[in-house]
Amino acid sequence: MTSENLQGAVRKLMTLDGNSVRNATSKMDLAPRIEGGLAYATDQRHLPGLLHGAILRSTCAHALITRVDTSRALNMPGVHAVIKADDVPGLNRFGIVIRDQPVFCDDRVRYEGDAIAAVAADTPEQARAALDAIEVDYQPLPVVSDASLAEQQTAIHSSHEEHGGSNLLVRETLECGDIDDALSRCTVIAEHHYQTPRQMHVFMETEGGVAIPDGKGGVLFRVGCQSGHRDVEQLADILGVAREKVAVESMATGGAFGGKDELTVQPAAGLLALKTGRPVMIHLDRFESCRAGIKRHPVSVKMTTGCDAAGRLLAHKVEAVLDTGAYASLGPAVLENYLDHATAPLYRIEAYRVSGRLVYTNNGVCGAFRGFGGNQATFAVESQLDELARGLGIEPATLRRINLRSPGDAGSRNQTVRWTAPPADVLAAAVASPLWSRGDTDNGRWLTGTGMAMGAQGNGLGDGLPDSGGGRISLSPAGRICVEFGFTDYGQNIVESITRSVCNGVGCREADVEVVLGSSRGPDSGPTSASRSTVLVHGVLASILPRWMDAVRGHAARVSGQPEKGLEFGPGGIFSDGRQVLSYRELAESTNPGGMTANASQDFPVAPDSEHPVGRYLQLQIATVARVEVDRITGRVRVTDLHHVTAAGPVIYPPGYLGQIEGAAVMGQGMTLTEDMTAHEGRYQADNLDQYLIPTFHDAPLQRVDVLDNTPEDDPYPVRGVGELGIEAVAPAITAAIEAATGVRVRRLPVDPGDLLVAMAAQEQNL
Amino acid sequence: MSDHYPLPETPAQQNISFELNGEAVTRSASDAGTLLDILRESGQITSARPGCRVGRCGACQVLLDGCAVPSCLVMAWQLPGRHVQTVEGLNKDPDFLAVRDALASESALQCGYCTPGFAVSLVAGIRQRRQGSKVDLTECVAGNLCRCTGYGGLRRAIARLAAPGCADEADGRSTSEQEKL
Ligand code: FES
Ligand code: FES
Fold it and tell me: Quick check: B3 contacting A, CB < 8 Å?
């Protein structure tokens, strides 16, 4: 790790690179993951009596169901059960925010992936063959496919039909100051439309897992998920059983990124398990995952932003439409986060009116996805700033410097904000990036350019949502310091980061720590989302460890007969005068099982003083500098380098931090350049990874991450979660770089090479 | 367009004999079955994983007579007499151990679902290079997708594998340079 001073202002800048990774990579064994020894949710073939489930999906984007006949399917070979809407004993609906999605559609289908029935059979082939034997009659309805027109069309949810017949699900406006007055005083105004795509998560392990009946009316779920406790509530209601009857055990999950936050296969698998009395596995193949799975909300937005002659931002007006698809899922929360980010949290703006509408359509279902609406908004906001800078004839960085908030300023929602570094320092470090010195070049075919954008993001679930989380620490019978949280591990390095925190706090070694995650019987930590786990883990450990260590020390003193004062935690056990007096194992043996346990729970920190609790108290920032090459012949864009400057508090586990930023950034690059699940009349146009293209090794840029950590000494919440930060500013950085290379500003993502070529040709003619 | 992927009517089952990780095995498989299905059905091999079943993601990659291939594209009828290796059978193989150590020490994985597939591709590449082929290790993973890491750790691991003195002999190609921004 290297330290350097940049422009004096930056006190602490550390480059995370291969060396920091190698020095810090956990001695905890990654080997089992590489050797194939780690069991994923979809790996559980060895269960005795295992049946395979399959789900019948709609073939229409919008239709009334007039008949469902399962009788032929029931008599197919190997089939043990066929279920449909009237076989749901409890509530035939689910959804994290609004329970508007049927487990099995009864009267109407609202998207092509809607579930109608499910089958359990001895083999996956038999199950799918039985699906073909289920007869469904549809009466097609007009398809609501254009989000901008959705409000004028007949409501796809009858509950909304009663309320005025609209497909408008939520409309929300954030306001500050007098927007009209501010607009009238602007010297330069930029008014543009922006569009971002319906991105697919493409976790490499598609949705799946097993439901195991306990023989007493209960079910255990081992399914890739993000929030065991919340799933238990919904599943108990669907199965029509008490919550105690449902348990969720987390398994290693092959990626989630928000796409496994909502229930996926659990309802069908659970119902089939109860009906057959046997464990049932459902594993969606990629075709079904593409069609039925959650996506990122496409956003179409008009922004009008103005500044005075000195470059001070005066007015900012936003009108956004988010397409949530057939069901709400986390759409209302995504809208709220979109709007928060659309207020341009990094910058002082005299007045804004930021409004958004979340509409139902028949275009699949959209919900949580890393960035959670925020990065869609940041793309447009940062692009607007570049337009204003051009209008004024000043550098984009200069315009930003003029308007960036300083520590101590209120946030854009007038809330107290805790930054981990002054935003101006982040900008200064990005301006000093070595990428700028390479210049914009043209070798006849490839045009190169460099661009930059910034982003801010608050940790936590956001406004008004209950957001607390707990954890537990104990000494296991085997003498390991056992730390339990309800979070799930889907590859975000949470185990390593918890272990590291415990080692730092206790003074033990990694081998002394055991991390247990994701059991609904364990502590409720809330969902594994919104970059909240790192913050909660740190907060819970900070409150729990001193208490627990005191108790253990007292006990060790009694057992060993040594004075408590001289006892210290160390590698492998308790030490006195540098000599081990008791191993953790001996300590564990000297107490009753569970005898040395401490619990803690805490609310996620929110801004203390605002009228109603707004999240975004703990702010993180990023500046991303992108260098691109644009092919003058094909219009293809290659991102060669991404340089990020991050300010998100101290780095707990360097490989995890670096990996999260790098991974999120390449995901953002995918959204910028190739990824879009387009829909035509409610029908998705791609059904597998040969048509829906995510970045490959050769598309991935060289990346560098510089961490700026100026966290004030007295900050009570120094540690922040960086799971989403890396995606925040990538898209506008890339489009700024494309403009530097070609003179063309792209406002619609993903960048269409054909459109780009046409615009480049027009540009050259004008010159 | 059918409403899910097409399936044969009732596929005939037959016994297929091949070598799996050094042992002769006989498995019942349908004509339409793939090597990936056969491996996963046994429950013993979990390192070959479905990600797409159309040959695009590499999560199912195995060695077939020493070549890295997506097992979802190998049909059961192609198997008799062939040698199949998965990472479960490579745990004493020096090339695999070099790959494993490079991936682990460069922290080239997060969820790990894609990782055995990358490892298999790299093992095949290292062996080819040792036999004198001018193979670029980065080309060997062109068919492997990873959604978590952004390929940063993988890039570092490949640079390490291609460095002089490693299991592989460096030939001055791009992979052996420690690229840095
Ligand atoms: S499952 Fe074989 S390549 Fe994707
Ligand atoms: S580590 Fe998750 S897909 Fe590669």
Answer: yes
